[in-house]
Design brief:
Rossmann fold, 2 domains, globular, seven-stranded mixed beta sheet
Length: 259
Protein backbone atom coordinates (compact mmCIF):
# COMPACT_ATOMS: atom_id res chain seq x y z
CA UNK A 1 0.00 0.00 0.00
CA UNK A 2 3.03 2.27 0.09
CA UNK A 3 2.50 3.14 3.75
CA UNK A 4 5.75 1.82 5.21
CA UNK A 5 7.73 4.75 6.54
CA UNK A 6 4.67 6.90 7.20
CA UNK A 7 4.49 8.37 10.70
CA UNK A 8 1.17 8.99 12.42
CA UNK A 9 0.65 10.46 15.88
CA UNK A 10 -2.49 9.82 17.88
CA UNK A 11 -3.28 12.23 20.69
CA UNK A 12 -4.21 10.93 24.15
CA UNK A 13 -5.39 12.33 27.45
CA UNK A 14 -7.55 11.25 30.39
CA UNK A 15 -11.00 9.81 29.62
CA UNK A 16 -10.22 8.94 26.00
CA UNK A 17 -12.61 6.69 24.06
CA UNK A 18 -11.10 3.20 23.83
CA UNK A 19 -12.34 2.32 20.34
CA UNK A 20 -11.50 5.70 18.85
CA UNK A 21 -7.90 5.44 20.02
CA UNK A 22 -7.08 1.73 19.74
CA UNK A 23 -8.91 0.96 16.48
CA UNK A 24 -6.75 3.41 14.47
CA UNK A 25 -3.59 2.40 16.38
CA UNK A 26 -3.99 -1.29 15.56
CA UNK A 27 -5.23 -0.79 12.01
CA UNK A 28 -2.46 1.63 11.04
CA UNK A 29 0.27 -0.49 12.62
CA UNK A 30 -1.04 -3.51 10.70
CA UNK A 31 -0.69 -1.42 7.51
CA UNK A 32 3.01 -0.83 8.24
CA UNK A 33 2.64 2.72 9.55
CA UNK A 34 4.73 3.94 12.47
CA UNK A 35 2.19 4.99 15.10
CA UNK A 36 3.08 7.00 18.21
CA UNK A 37 0.84 7.93 21.13
CA UNK A 38 1.31 11.58 22.04
CA UNK A 39 0.13 13.11 25.30
CA UNK A 40 0.03 16.61 26.67
CA UNK A 41 2.92 16.13 29.09
CA UNK A 42 0.62 15.94 32.10
CA UNK A 43 1.26 12.19 32.59
CA UNK A 44 3.02 9.17 31.13
CA UNK A 45 -0.11 7.00 31.22
CA UNK A 46 -3.74 7.93 30.69
CA UNK A 47 -6.88 5.94 31.43
CA UNK A 48 -9.93 5.73 29.24
CA UNK A 49 -13.54 6.40 30.18
CA UNK A 50 -13.72 2.77 31.36
CA UNK A 51 -10.26 2.54 32.93
CA UNK A 52 -8.15 1.14 30.08
CA UNK A 53 -4.59 2.51 30.30
CA UNK A 54 -2.47 3.78 27.43
CA UNK A 55 1.21 4.70 27.73
CA UNK A 56 2.39 7.68 25.72
CA UNK A 57 5.55 7.72 23.64
CA UNK A 58 6.14 11.45 23.93
CA UNK A 59 4.38 14.77 24.48
CA UNK A 60 3.01 17.27 21.99
CA UNK A 61 5.70 19.85 22.70
CA UNK A 62 8.30 17.34 21.50
CA UNK A 63 6.60 16.69 18.14
CA UNK A 64 7.04 18.81 15.03
CA UNK A 65 4.31 18.74 12.39
CA UNK A 66 7.01 18.68 9.72
CA UNK A 67 8.11 15.24 10.94
CA UNK A 68 4.73 13.50 10.80
CA UNK A 69 2.28 12.53 8.08
CA UNK A 70 -0.93 12.65 10.11
CA UNK A 71 -2.32 13.78 13.46
CA UNK A 72 -5.31 11.80 14.74
CA UNK A 73 -7.53 13.08 17.55
CA UNK A 74 -9.75 10.46 19.24
CA UNK A 75 -12.85 11.44 21.15
CA UNK A 76 -14.28 10.61 24.52
CA UNK A 77 -13.75 13.42 27.00
CA UNK A 78 -10.01 13.55 26.35
CA UNK A 79 -10.46 16.43 23.85
CA UNK A 80 -11.66 18.67 26.67
CA UNK A 81 -8.24 18.12 28.28
CA UNK A 82 -6.25 18.24 25.04
CA UNK A 83 -7.68 21.62 24.04
CA UNK A 84 -6.15 23.26 27.13
CA UNK A 85 -2.54 22.71 26.00
CA UNK A 86 -0.98 25.25 23.59
CA UNK A 87 1.46 22.64 22.26
CA UNK A 88 -1.43 20.41 21.17
CA UNK A 89 -3.22 23.26 19.43
CA UNK A 90 0.00 24.36 17.71
CA UNK A 91 0.65 20.82 16.46
CA UNK A 92 -2.85 20.64 14.96
CA UNK A 93 -2.60 24.10 13.37
CA UNK A 94 0.86 23.45 11.98
CA UNK A 95 -0.10 20.05 10.57
CA UNK A 96 -3.08 21.50 8.70
CA UNK A 97 -1.05 24.45 7.44
CA UNK A 98 1.66 22.10 6.14
CA UNK A 99 -0.83 19.91 4.28
CA UNK A 100 -0.55 16.98 6.66
CA UNK A 101 -3.62 14.87 7.40
CA UNK A 102 -5.53 15.92 10.51
CA UNK A 103 -8.39 13.66 11.55
CA UNK A 104 -10.86 14.14 14.41
CA UNK A 105 -13.70 11.92 15.54
CA UNK A 106 -16.61 12.40 17.95
CA UNK A 107 -15.85 15.04 20.62
CA UNK A 108 -12.44 15.73 19.05
CA UNK A 109 -14.05 18.63 17.23
CA UNK A 110 -13.47 20.57 20.44
CA UNK A 111 -9.74 20.54 19.69
CA UNK A 112 -10.35 21.86 16.17
CA UNK A 113 -12.50 24.65 17.61
CA UNK A 114 -9.91 25.67 20.21
CA UNK A 115 -7.12 25.51 17.62
CA UNK A 116 -9.09 27.97 15.47
CA UNK A 117 -9.06 25.68 12.42
CA UNK A 118 -12.76 24.84 12.17
CA UNK A 119 -13.83 28.18 10.68
CA UNK A 120 -14.87 27.88 7.06
CA UNK A 121 -14.52 24.09 7.05
CA UNK A 122 -17.15 21.47 6.39
CA UNK A 123 -17.03 18.98 9.25
CA UNK A 124 -18.99 16.45 11.22
CA UNK A 125 -18.81 15.32 14.85
CA UNK A 126 -20.91 13.68 17.51
CA UNK A 127 -24.25 15.50 17.46
CA UNK A 128 -23.76 16.65 21.05
CA UNK A 129 -21.15 19.22 19.95
CA UNK A 130 -22.85 20.28 16.71
CA UNK A 131 -23.54 23.75 18.15
CA UNK A 132 -19.92 24.10 19.30
CA UNK A 133 -18.70 23.38 15.78
CA UNK A 134 -21.15 25.80 14.20
CA UNK A 135 -20.23 28.50 16.75
CA UNK A 136 -16.57 27.89 15.84
CA UNK A 137 -17.44 28.84 12.26
CA UNK A 138 -17.71 25.39 10.70
CA UNK A 139 -20.39 24.06 8.37
CA UNK A 140 -21.68 20.95 10.16
CA UNK A 141 -23.12 17.96 8.27
CA UNK A 142 -24.41 14.60 9.50
CA UNK A 143 -22.26 12.10 7.58
CA UNK A 144 -20.10 9.17 8.66
CA UNK A 145 -16.93 10.73 7.29
CA UNK A 146 -16.27 14.19 5.85
CA UNK A 147 -13.13 15.28 4.06
CA UNK A 148 -12.42 18.98 3.61
CA UNK A 149 -8.98 19.33 2.10
CA UNK A 150 -6.56 17.59 4.45
CA UNK A 151 -9.06 17.61 7.35
CA UNK A 152 -11.08 14.44 8.01
CA UNK A 153 -13.88 14.21 10.58
CA UNK A 154 -16.32 11.51 11.70
CA UNK A 155 -19.14 11.21 14.22
CA UNK A 156 -18.96 8.16 16.50
CA UNK A 157 -17.20 4.77 16.92
CA UNK A 158 -19.56 3.18 14.39
CA UNK A 159 -17.92 5.39 11.73
CA UNK A 160 -14.40 4.12 12.49
CA UNK A 161 -14.08 1.87 9.39
CA UNK A 162 -14.93 4.78 7.07
CA UNK A 163 -12.84 7.18 9.19
CA UNK A 164 -9.70 5.05 8.97
CA UNK A 165 -10.34 4.23 5.30
CA UNK A 166 -10.33 7.95 4.55
CA UNK A 167 -7.09 8.50 6.48
CA UNK A 168 -5.36 5.58 4.75
CA UNK A 169 -6.50 6.83 1.36
CA UNK A 170 -5.07 10.29 2.01
CA UNK A 171 -1.80 8.75 3.14
CA UNK A 172 -1.56 7.09 -0.27
CA UNK A 173 -2.69 3.57 0.55
CA UNK A 174 -6.06 2.45 -0.73
CA UNK A 175 -6.67 -0.88 0.95
CA UNK A 176 -7.37 -3.78 -1.39
CA UNK A 177 -8.07 -6.24 1.40
CA UNK A 178 -11.80 -5.56 1.81
CA UNK A 179 -13.05 -7.22 -1.37
CA UNK A 180 -10.41 -9.89 -0.94
CA UNK A 181 -12.39 -11.00 2.13
CA UNK A 182 -15.41 -11.97 -0.01
CA UNK A 183 -15.80 -15.74 -0.49
CA UNK A 184 -18.54 -18.23 -1.31
CA UNK A 185 -19.61 -18.19 2.34
CA UNK A 186 -19.87 -14.38 2.56
CA UNK A 187 -23.43 -13.11 2.90
CA UNK A 188 -24.79 -10.73 0.27
CA UNK A 189 -25.17 -7.99 2.88
CA UNK A 190 -21.55 -8.33 4.03
CA UNK A 191 -20.24 -8.53 0.44
CA UNK A 192 -22.06 -5.33 -0.48
CA UNK A 193 -20.87 -3.62 2.70
CA UNK A 194 -17.27 -4.43 1.76
CA UNK A 195 -17.93 -3.23 -1.79
CA UNK A 196 -19.22 0.08 -0.44
CA UNK A 197 -16.01 0.49 1.62
CA UNK A 198 -13.85 -0.31 -1.41
CA UNK A 199 -15.68 2.19 -3.63
CA UNK A 200 -15.36 4.87 -0.95
CA UNK A 201 -11.63 4.25 -0.63
CA UNK A 202 -11.14 4.42 -4.39
CA UNK A 203 -13.17 7.63 -4.65
CA UNK A 204 -11.21 9.23 -1.81
CA UNK A 205 -7.91 8.23 -3.39
CA UNK A 206 -8.77 9.64 -6.82
CA UNK A 207 -10.11 12.84 -5.24
CA UNK A 208 -6.87 13.21 -3.29
CA UNK A 209 -4.89 12.65 -6.49
CA UNK A 210 -6.79 15.48 -8.21
CA UNK A 211 -5.61 17.83 -5.46
CA UNK A 212 -2.02 16.60 -5.43
CA UNK A 213 -0.98 16.20 -9.08
CA UNK A 214 0.31 19.24 -10.94
CA UNK A 215 0.05 18.02 -14.54
CA UNK A 216 -3.24 19.19 -16.10
CA UNK A 217 -3.79 16.01 -18.13
CA UNK A 218 -3.18 13.77 -15.12
CA UNK A 219 -5.49 15.96 -13.06
CA UNK A 220 -8.25 15.43 -15.68
CA UNK A 221 -7.69 11.67 -15.65
CA UNK A 222 -8.06 11.45 -11.88
CA UNK A 223 -11.05 13.79 -11.98
CA UNK A 224 -12.80 11.45 -14.42
CA UNK A 225 -11.89 8.40 -12.33
CA UNK A 226 -13.23 10.08 -9.18
CA UNK A 227 -16.50 10.78 -11.00
CA UNK A 228 -16.78 7.14 -12.10
CA UNK A 229 -16.09 5.87 -8.58
CA UNK A 230 -18.67 8.27 -7.16
CA UNK A 231 -21.23 6.85 -9.61
CA UNK A 232 -20.27 3.28 -8.71
CA UNK A 233 -20.51 4.11 -5.00
CA UNK A 234 -24.06 5.36 -5.37
CA UNK A 235 -25.12 2.21 -7.21
CA UNK A 236 -23.56 -0.14 -4.67
CA UNK A 237 -24.80 1.92 -1.71
CA UNK A 238 -28.36 1.82 -3.10
CA UNK A 239 -28.13 -1.96 -3.50
CA UNK A 240 -26.80 -2.34 0.03
CA UNK A 241 -29.51 -0.10 1.50
CA UNK A 242 -32.30 -2.00 -0.25
CA UNK A 243 -30.96 -5.42 0.75
CA UNK A 244 -30.57 -4.42 4.40
CA UNK A 245 -34.18 -3.25 4.38
CA UNK A 246 -35.41 -6.42 2.62
CA UNK A 247 -33.01 -9.38 3.23
CA UNK A 248 -35.22 -11.62 1.06
CA UNK A 249 -34.91 -9.44 -2.02
CA UNK A 250 -35.08 -11.88 -4.98
CA UNK A 251 -32.26 -10.19 -6.87
CA UNK A 252 -29.82 -11.81 -4.44
CA UNK A 253 -31.43 -15.25 -4.18
CA UNK A 254 -28.37 -16.66 -5.97
CA UNK A 255 -26.40 -15.88 -2.78
CA UNK A 256 -28.71 -18.15 -0.78
CA UNK A 257 -28.23 -21.77 -1.96
CA UNK A 258 -31.68 -21.74 -3.59
CA UNK A 259 -32.29 -24.96 -5.53
Amino acid sequence: MGLTGKRVVILAESLYNELELWYPVLRFRAAGIKVEIVGTGSALTYTSKFGMPVDVDTSADQVSASEVDAVIIPGGYAPDHLRRYPAVLKLVRDALAQGKVVAAICHAGWVLASAGVARGRTVTSVAAIKDDMINAGARWVDEEVVRDGNLITSRTPTDLPAFTDAILAMLGGVESSSLGQVSETTSAVEALRLAVQAEKSAFQFYSMAVDKVKDAEAKNVFHDLAGEEERHLKIVQDEYNRLTQDPGWDRYSIWRDVI
